[in-house]
Amino acid sequence: MVGDVIAGRYELEQLVDQGGMSSVYRGRDRLLERNVALKVLHPHFLDDAEYVERFRREARAAAQLSHPHIVTVIDRGSADGNQFIVFEYVDGENLKQLVERAGPLSVERTLELGIEIADALAFAHAHGLVHRDVKPQNVLIDAAGSAKVTDFGIARSLDVERGVTQTGTVLGTSNYLSPEQAEGRPVTPASDIYSLGVVLYEMLTGEVPFRGDNLVVVAMKHVTETPPSLRLHRPDLPPRLARAVERALEKDPARRFPSMDAFANELRRCRDDLGGFDADRTVVRGAPVAVPGPVRRKTRLGRRLPVMLALAGLVLGGAVVAAVLLSRSTSGQGSHGGASGGGSAPVTLRGVGNYDPTGSPDTHASTASAATDGNPSTDWYTQIYATPAFGNLKPGLGLVLDAGRAAKLKTLTVSTPTPGFVAQIRSGNSPSGPFTGDSSTQTVGSSTTFSLHGQTAQYYVVWITRLPSGGKAEISEVTTG
Question: Per-residue pLDDT averaged across 26-49, rounded?
């Protein structure tokens, strides 16, 4: 109780939080004259060996983790009929309280905190620990505004095969529970990636993706339902950040980021890209409209000039309008050039997916349509798997384009904001291959035209065999002429 002194040293000053297993107090270390936080196991669990061992394991687990974004363990012990753990005192609020008080956070603030949380969890994973209860209540925000992850109470060693928590036991908080946890399957670092994805979703929207009347209903939604679109909630979100969170929330752990480090690095890239996004306005088919819509990058202002000229033409009228509209008809959505063959109907290219001969899943396939939508501010992308090129993991990876019918194309022009990757155009009659070479191999610049050999095919692949120095290739538009 408040006022008690534990182990002759730690005075309990205020009850801060109370959970099903323990209570957390702000306390005073009389010996070192400093504020501390004490977690004290509820008395009715003292005779339960499983709970006592889990509590001790939290102390041991957290004590291994010395990281600026993980709450530090100072002491643990058993005294006066209490099991207790002493932590550094974080003077602030938890992330749940912040979101409830302030509402959805800005993109910048979300990324700032998200990177810190991901770095902390990646550090824990590197030391063989999965948190298993990642939620905003377990992220403290200190006086400087930095995040500190706490409560490794149900953390589990990656190499533990037997212990007090076995496969088949659902542990974690239902709003943030990964599908595999909900089904009682083994947890891995990918489980923490999913839970952090839910936390980021809540930070950006102010709401968790799934709600229900009870724990079971919510848990099953994590297993069976797709989260509501982030950009429906927040049209100002950069598409890249929305894709990152959606990838973290994949039902299949294999389709999430390969590691928490990879997730943290993608969040850093999202942060680095923020200076290039303008979420206030976008231009579609020659007319200014308010967001929602694909977010346009300021750094590509030069690529917006044809559309801006088209707007000027609408004001000037007459022949200028006709000329601008004619020039746009070969590059806008639904009119990506034509096939050879003398007077045949124009070919409309559609990005339909990825070609990966290794057969491994890649959620970036969902961005394929962005390469043929007539909007140079949206991209299909693939990123590094290892070095050099794709390392020994993949011989390459391709963007699959559907011409809609068998056609003999003369050229394909690839536009990219990440020049420097090496590619070849291949063609075939099935979106899953096989594909044969239909052009020479070239290093792609900002806009590079491939002359094709003239094979007749319905499907064409921009086959990338080496990534640029940044480890990521993006394709904003593919057109044919």
Answer: 85
Per the annotation, the verdict on 91 as an active-site residue is: no
Is the CB of residue 410 less than 8 Å from the CB of residue 453?
Answer: no
CATH fold of 350-480 reads Jelly Rolls (2.60.120)
Specify which residues 18 forms β-bridges with. Answer: 23
DSSP β-bridge partners for residue 464: 397, 423
| CATH code reported for the domain at 93-272 | 1.10.510.10
**pTM listed for this prediction:** 0.55
Domain at 5-88: CATH code? 3.30.200.20
Lowest mean pLDDT among 57-61, 255-259, 277-281: 277-281
Where in 104-194 does DSSP place strands (E)? 129-130, 139-141, 147-149, 156-157
Domain boundaries, the chain: 5-88, 93-272, 278-328, 350-480
Buried b (16+ CB within 10 A) or exposed e, 311-339: eebeeeeeeebeebeeebeebbeebbbbb
pLDDT at 51: 77
Interacting residues of 142 by C-beta distance below 8 A, sequence separation 6+:
90, 91, 92, 148
Residues in the chain: 481
- Mean confidence (pLDDT) of the chain: 77
Strand positions, DSSP E, 159-306: 277-278, 281-284, 287-290, 296-297
Q: What is the pLDDT of residues 296-321, one digit of tens each?
A: 333 333 333 333 333 333 333 333 23
Task: Determine how many CB atoms are found less than 10 A away from the CB of residue 245.
Answer: 27
Residue carrying structure tokens 């979101």: 99
CB-based contacts of 177: which residues, under 8 Å, 6+ apart? Answer: 170, 195, 218, 219, 222
Query: Residue 141 corresponds to which tokens in the numbers above?
Result: 């925000």
CA atoms within 13 A on the CB side of 408: 9
CA distance 254 to 385: 14
Tokens (6 digits) for 345 = 């109907």
For tokens 């890209």, the residue is 273
Q: Which of 4, 47, 80, 133 is catalytic?
A: 133
Cα–Cα distance measured from residue 121 to residue 118, given in angstroms and rounded to the nearest whole number: 5
